[in-house]
Structures are given as structure tokens and as C-alpha cells.
Design goal:
Blueprint lengths: L4 E3 L2 E2 L5 H10 L24 H7 L3 E7 L23 E5 L17 E4 L7 E3 L10 H23 L3 E6 L26 E4 L2 E4 L25 H26 L8 E3 L22 H4 L14 H4 L3 E4 L8 E3 L3 E2 L2 H9 L14 H4 L12 E9 L14 E10 L2 E5 L10 E3 L16 H13 L21 E7 L1 E7 L17 E5 L12 E11 L3 E9 L6 E6 L2 E6 L8 E3 L9 E3 L2 E11 L7 E7 L2 E5 L5 E6 L2
Parallel strand pairs: 1-12, 2-13, 3-4, 3-7
Antiparallel strand pairs: 1-11, 4-5, 5-6, 8-9, 10-11, 14-15, 15-16, 16-17, 18-30, 19-20, 19-21, 21-27, 21-30, 22-25, 22-26, 22-28, 23-24, 23-27, 28-29
Helix pairs in contact: 3-4
Length: 639
């Protein structure tokens, strides 16, 4: 924290782990996550751009170590189709399913997997039998991460590749399970945790300590022994172990002389919890967030969309680029990291990403920061706990369907939503982090805009059902007159995916207006086109949209309506095929009010021949047909 920047208003994507990690990996907020929302643990995330694929395709060696939880198997009871090796990571060592994160000696009861994409015959292996039952998860994953970095740097000296590591510690999640031995002295290349070969296997050195078996789950860090109860001693020791591991990793970067130009992002996937976990072998009760007041100056814990459940500690350290000792109160969210890392790697931000690059804020140029969106939805029964520190109106608040959206820097929050027209509570969380003063009664115009933003930035996710899914998305008011056709801008470049051209740093080489997306556009051999404007919806109701590109090699497209993901013809798209706004073979119509709706279409192609996009619709009184040119226009949208 002292050596980098503290992001003090950074938000997890959801107040629980699985949806938060899905959004982090995919770079989308929960309104556009197609599969993993709410409590859909172990469901396989969609085959789309991820932190792994973007960084791998940018020329980085990629590894995921620790907890995955979004690949299939486990509680989902479906095949593993989205393992880390299937979502862009060259190497994986860790636990696949969500519940394995409750077991801090994982090989006692759960499976441990490894995948080495650098092997001559890479295979996904269950290596549980090769992991000593004395291996504590924080130690095990930190040591494996250290060794992977060492191995990668030796290899990289020949290839020049940088690396990207996604290190997901389970602690302090689930049961209050502690190590058996102290943290080894020193750190880095020669000290601290080390990956060693012993007794016919490879593991962390602490697993082979002579006291490891006898003292398993007993070690309390001396600094924490003063606390008056076992729960607090254990919880704080688990956190200290992660802290020591991060210090060990930083020491390694210094020993390898890559510390200055290595960026570290440290965060958490939800607020503090009061749940004991599933490991019956090591049951010690549940953490009480009140003891350390882990929610700080906020109300709410895990599963709450109050600030305490979603606003998470986030630190970023990069000595070469990030000035020391910074504190930022700029609101950001998990989906911003894919855009940020794409920016760091100097590749385009994928059009599917809901995020904006935070690099200006991180590097001391907050005046150049593009505004982003903070949005979340989460449905879970139960109530906010009645902790003495919480405000009276927050104690025992019914959760149910929760939704938050930020507009003009203010947070809209609604809980127990059974009607999509329910009013938001409105808070100035910059100056009122406890959410003590509801501003809704004084801001009726903002209330309407928050409701519109909440509906226009999301799509339904099947099989999940919410009260928002069939609510009509309002049209926009436009200042002045609108003109026929869509604006287009041509960008030169060899684009590996459809970019968010709003974040592309090179200017357009040409501009113009086209009657409709179906107009042929000639360009250079490698090009990208962005079309923006409005589509006029003739009647209230449910609509399905269809898109077809030309058959040119590399042709891809991505369509947004408002802020929602409408059509994805990008990562898995076959040029010339027709794709719809449905979810595969499952109907997923868009419910729209009559009037003008902002549309943004990105297209890339790698052929010198003419490109072509055809956009069709189907809706009330409309059989499936091409959208007429008369439906498209451009102008200025009002706020």
C-alpha cells in the first residue's frame, strides 16, 4: 500500500465469490455475464475473451494458480468445459471446484489439479495423491507461484516473453484453518517458501517440516496470540499468512531484478463473511466480522449489496509506472481489470468488455480517466445481520433481489426487488460510506435515470430469472434533430478481436455516414469499422436481433444496444454465419419501449475485399427481416 496506490472505492462484481470471479475473468459486470450470476457455483463460464486469452494473445506466458471455481464439475454437476487451460492459461496448479476452497489442507479431502501447456503432451491431471496432506493451501499455492515465476524467467531469457499470473488464494475463505508451522525465514529465491523435491514428490517446504503432521492446524502467529478468542486468533493468522506470502513474492521479484517493471494487483472477491465453511475435520466456528470491525466504516457483509459487502480493499504496485503513496477515491469495479491489463499490454480492449482502463488513475493522471460503470445484481434470501455498528434501518434488511447502479457518481441501491419499477435508495458513498442518508426524495429526475440505466445495461441470463428480464427498456430523448443513417469511423490495424474503439488510442483514418449497416464498406487489407447512432423501435414489446457478416477470413462483429450486450459475433464466430441476440438455442428476447435506442456496432476484417454487415429484427407485428434504413439515425443523446 505504501509503495503504490490504494483504490479505496473499488467494488467486487458481486457480494459473493463465484459471480465476482466470473466477472473479473471475463471483463463484464454481472448484467452481461451469460452464465454465472447469483449463487451458480462451479458453472462453466462462457467461451469468450478472458484475462487469460487476452494476455496470452498479447504475447504473455499465462498461469492460474489456486482456486478456479468457474469451470464446471463440483456443485454444478456438469462436465468441466471451462477449465483454466480452456480459457487462456498455459499453466494451472490448484483446485477446480468452489467447495475445495473451504479445505485449507486440500489434498485431505479434495482434488488438486495441474495442467502444463508447455509439456510435449499436455494433459489435465488430478495430482491429489502427489500432494502431501500436510500442505497448507496458502503455502502450497504461493510456493508453486514462486517456482513458476522462476522457471518462466529462465525460459523467458530466451524468448523475451513477459508473464501474467492469476494467483487466487482460498484464505481466509471458509473454515478457520491455520498452518502447522511458522512461516520460513527469509524470502525470495533462497528463503521463505520453496518448492522442493522430497519423499518421491514435489511440494512446498513447510509440508515436509518435521512438525508439520503433528502440529497441523495449530500454529497461531505470535502477533495474533493476544486476541481473547480462538476464532480471532485463527482468522488473523490466516490473513497474516497471505501477507507473508505476498512479501515473499515481492522479494522474489527483487531477486530476479524484475520488481521495478512488474505490476501487482491485490484485491478480494467480497466483503467479510460470518460463514464457517464445509470442512468438518477442522471445525472452529465462524469468523465474527464485528471483532475486527472488518467492514470498516461501512455497513454490510458478504451477500449484502451495502458498501461493506462489495467495496473491497484493492492495492496496485508497479514501481516503474505507479507513484508511491497514492490514494484514489475513483469508483471502479472488477470488470475494469481486463480493460486495464489490455491497455498495459498495448492490445485493444475487447468490445465485449464492460470495463474501462484504470491506467490513468493508477499512473497519476486521474484527469485523463475515462468514466466507467459500476453495476451489480445479486439474488439471495436472508437478511443483513443486526450488528451493533450498523444503522438501525440496515439491521435485518431483507436481501432478496438486490441491484446497484452508479449514476453521476451517486449509488442507487434497491433490495427485495419484486417490481422493476421499485425506487432506488440513493447514496453519496464518497462522503457517506455508511449509507446513512437516502437522497432519493430530493432527486426524482435522478431516480428515473437510475431506473433506465439499471434496465439498459443488462441482459437476462438463462436459466436465472429476475423481475428485470421482461421490463421494457426506455427509449432515449435526443436533443435537437436526428439525421438519417449511422455514423461510421474506419480504423487501420490488424485486430485480433473486435475492439472497443472508444478506447483505441489511434485516430480513425476516415469518417462518414452510411444509410444502414448493410452498406458495403471498402477498406484496407486490415481494418476495423465502428458504426454508432440509433435504431427506432416501432412498438413496445419483445425483440430478437440477428446479424450476419461477410465470409471474409477474420470477419467479426459485436453489437451493443445501450450498454447491453446484444449480439456477439466475435471470439467463436464463423464468418458468414448468422447469430442472434438469443443465448444459443435458448430464446432471450430484448424488451424495448417504442422510440430511439442507441446502437453501437464494431466490425473487423482481414481481407481486401468489400465487407458487409446485415442486421435483422423480429418483434411485435414484425416477421424476421432486415432492419430498414429508415430505422437508423444519428444525433445527440440527452442525459
Amino acid at each position: 500500500a505504501r509503495e503504490g496506490i490504494q483504490l479505496r472505492r473499488h467494488y467486487s462484481a458481486a457480494p459473493v465469490c463465484a459471480p465476482a470471479r466470473a466477472s473479473l475473468l471475463l471483463g463484464v459486470h454481472q448484467g452481461n455475464s451469460r452464465v454465472v450470476r447469483n449463487n451458480r457455483f462451479d458453472q462453466p463460464i462462457e467461451d469468450s475473451h478472458t484475462l487469460g486469452t487476452v494476455m496470452r494473445d498479447a504475447g504473455y506466458d499465462t498461469a492460474a494458480i489456486g482456486k478456479w471455481g468457474v469451470g464446471g464439475g463440483g456443485q454444478s454437476h456438469v462436465p468441466m468445459t471451462a477449465g483454466p487451460h480452456q480459457r487462456g492459461f498455459n499453466y494451472f496448479y490448484g483446485i477446480l471446484d468452489h467447495l475445495a476452497g473451504h479445505f485449507h489442507y486440500p489434498s485431505e479431502s479434495r482434488d488438486v489439479f495441474e495442467y502444463n501447456g508447455y509439456a510435449s503432451n499436455p494433459e489435465w491431471k488430478n495430482i491429489k495423491d502427489q500432494v502431501p496432506q500436510t500442505a497448507y493451501s496458502t503455502d502450497l499455492f504461493a510456493a508453486r507461484a514462486k517456482q513458476w515465476i522462476v522457471d518462466q524467467r529462465k525460459f523467458a531469457r530466451k524468448t523475451g516473453k513477459p508473464f501474467f499470473l492469476y494467483l487466487a488464494f482460498p484464505a481466509p475463505h471458509g473454515n478457520l484453518v491455520v498452518p502447522g508451522v511458522p512461516y520460513p525465514s527469509g524470502g525470495g529465491l533462497k528463503g521463505g517458501l520453496q518448492w522442493v523435491k522430497k519423499e518421491g514428490t514435489e511440494s512446498v517446504n513447510t509440508a515436509f517440516d518435521a512438525k508439520a503432521e503433528k502440529n497441523k492446524d495449530t500454529y497461531i502467529h505470535p502477533d495474533n496470540s493476544r486476541f481473547p478468542n480462538d476464532v480471532a486468533k485463527r482468522h488473523s493468522t490466516m490473513i497474516r499468512r497471505v501477507d507473508d506470502a505476498v512479501a515473499d513474492l515481492i522479494r522474489l521479484l527483487k531477486d530476479l531484478k524484475i520488481d521495478d517493471n512488474t505490476m501487482i494487483v491485490f484485491s478480494s472477491d467480497n466483503g467479510p463473511h460470518n460463514e464457517g465453511g464445509a470442512d468438518s475435520r477442522h471445525w472452529h466456528g465462524a469468523q465474527n466480522p464485528q471483532f475486527f470491525k472488518s467492514y470498516g466504516m461501512m455497513d454490510g457483509i458478504k451477500r449484502d449489496c451495502w458498501e461493506g459487502g462489495m467495496r473491497v480493499p484493492t492495492l496496485v504496485r508497479w514501481p516503474a509506472r505507479i507513484p508511491k503513496g497514492q490514494i484514489s477515491l475513483h469508483p471502479g469495479q472488477f470488470h475494469d481489470w481486463l480493460a486495464t491489463l489490455a491497455d498495459v499490454a498495448e492490445v485493444p480492449v475487447p468490445a465485449r468488455s464492460d470495463g474501462v482502463s484504470l491506467l490513468p488513475t493508477l499512473t497519476g493522471h486521474a484527469d485523463q480517466q475515462k468514466p466507467g460503470i459500476v453495476y451489480a445484481e445479486y439474488n439471495f434470501a436472508g437478511k443483513t445481520p443486526e450488528y451493533k455498528d450498523f444503522l438501525g434501518e440496515h439491521k435485518g434488511a431483507q436481501r432478496g433481489q438486490q441491484q446497484i447502479v452508479f449514476v453521476d457518481g451517486l449509488k442507487g441501491l434497491r433490495m427485495g426487488v419484486k417490481d422493476a419499477d421499485k425506487d432506488f435508495m440513493i447514496f453519496d458513498t464518497l462522503n457517506d460510506p455508511q449509507e446513512s442518508k437516502d437522497l432519493a426524495s430530493s432527486k426524482p429526475e435522478l431516480q428515473a435515470r437510475m431506473k433506465a440505466a439499471a434496465l439498459s445495461n443488462r441482459r437476462a441470463s438463462l436459466p436465472s430469472k429476475t423481475v428485470f428480464d421482461s421490463a421494457l427498456v426506455p427509449a432515449v430523448d435526443v436533443k435537437g434533430t436526428v439525421s438519417p443513417g449511422l455514423r461510421w469511423a474506419l480504423y487501420e490495424g490488424d485486430f485480433p478481436w473486435v475492439p472497443d474503439f472508444r478506447q483505441w488510442k489511434k485516430p480513425a483514418s476516415a469518417h462518414g455516414v452510411t444509410p444502414s449497416p448493410s452498406v458495403k464498406m471498402n477498406g484496407s487489407d486490415k481494418r476495423g469499422v465502428e458504426l454508432t447512432g440509433y435504431v427506432k423501435i416501432p412498438e413496445d414489446g419483445a425483440y430478437t436481433f440477428y446479424l450476419t457478416t461477410d465470409e471474409n477470413k477474420g470477419s467479426k462483429a459485436f453489437v451493443r444496444l445501450h450498454g447491453m450486450e446484444l449480439i456477439d459475433a466475435d471470439k467463436t464466430y464463423e464468418p458468414g454465419a448468422e447469430v442472434s441476440s438469443d443465448l444459443g438455442d435458448r430464446k432471450n428476447p430484448v424488451y424495448l419501449k417504442a422510440g430511439l435506442h442507441p446502437i453501437r456496432i464494431g466490425y473487423v476484417g482481414n481481407s481486401g475485399t468489400a465487407s458487409k454487415l446485415v442486421l435483422k429484427w423480429e418483434g411485435p407485428g414484425l416477421s424476421k427481416k432486415e432492419i430498414p434504413a429508415s430505422a437508423f439515425s444519428h444525433g445527440k443523446e440527452s442525459r
